[in-house]
Design a protein that fits this description.
Nucleotidyltransferase, domain 5; 11 helices
């Protein structure tokens, strides 16, 4: 609807409706709603623009996180209501990772419990895997973020979503930070099959890491990992649209270097590693 409205003076509305598979009545209802002087219209317009930039892949939770990154603070349920009202919901539904694999060998308590503040370096880490779409296929990005300064401690990419991708990320993080790891280091994840595996259990035990895990169906429990992916995709991936795996890898390397060393955080007024290096 938003694209049709934007190009309404260039192409016939009837032709565009047919091309995008939407009804004319639905389109005119959308235009009518946008024209109303109502409280939701301005936010709906912002959401509609980001919806196109995100290839219509954002559900309300991801849109809520993106809005927060733009300093637009609304209740997640409000975002869902507006997206439903204006027909702006995601066109794809991804199953949660924990639904993809049958048996879960190990599950852990939600020790982090949404307490996203850490007083000490390397005491609370969050981890997750995200999808980077390229014309060659999907590149998987696994990363670990420290809640002390929000820096990315370690990351790895791969063309397959495997347990080894996660294990390699942990090994790299521990190699870099082993001398500065707190007496108790929590590593929080969602219920993805990699994090419930025997290999993950063995590696965290070997390093003396205490696993923490989101509750089933509670994506906000790992919001700080989701939030980083939202920033990376909004500020980098969606703007430059990598065509190949190597292009995506170069883009991720450049962006994470910028994010850690230069990108000013609004809360602290400095880049993540500025706080880390002074600790």
């Amino acid at each position: 609807h938003h694209i049709i409205y934007r190009h309404r003076t260039e192409y016939p509305v009837t032709v565009m409706c047919k091309f995008f598979g939407v009804s004319r009545s639905g389109y005119y209802a959308f235009v009518h709603r946008l024209g109303r002087p109502e409280k939701d219209a301005a936010l709906a317009e912002v959401i509609a623009q980001q919806r196109e930039r995100s290839f219509r892949t954002y559900g309300y939770r991801r849109m809520w996180l993106w809005l927060k990154s733009q300093n637009i603070f609304r209740n997640p349920k409000t975002v869902l209501r507006i997206m439903k009202k204006y027909g702006l919901l995601s066109e794809i539904r991804r199953r949660r990772k924990w639904q993809q694999i049958g048996q879960q060998v190990h599950k852990y308590k939600n020790l982090l419990n949404r307490e996203f503040h850490a007083d000490r370096l390397n005491s609370k880490w969050v981890t997750d895997i995200s999808y980077i779409h390229t014309k060659q296929g999907v590149l998987y990005l696994s990363m670990i973020r420290d809640l002390y300064d929000n820096s990315i401690v370690a990351y790895k990419t791969g063309t397959q979503q495997t347990v080894n991708l996660v294990l390699d990320t942990i090994c790299l993080a521990m190699k870099r930070e082993k001398k500065r790891v707190a007496a108790e280091l929590q590593l929080h994840s969602d219920q993805g099959f990699q994090y419930t595996s025997q290999a993950y259990f063995n590696l965290t035990q070997a390093y003396g890491i205490t696993p923490s895990m989101s509750r089933k169906g509670n994506p906000y429990d790992n919001a700080m990992a989701e939030n980083f992916f939202s920033i990376l995709k909004t500020e980098c991936i969606y703007r430059h649209k990598p065509a190949t795996f190597s292009e995506a890898n170069e883009m991720i390397d450049r962006y994470i270097l910028f994010y850690n060393h230069e990108r000013i955080q609004l809360k602290t007024g400095e880049a993540p590693l500025a706080r880390r290096l002074s600790s």
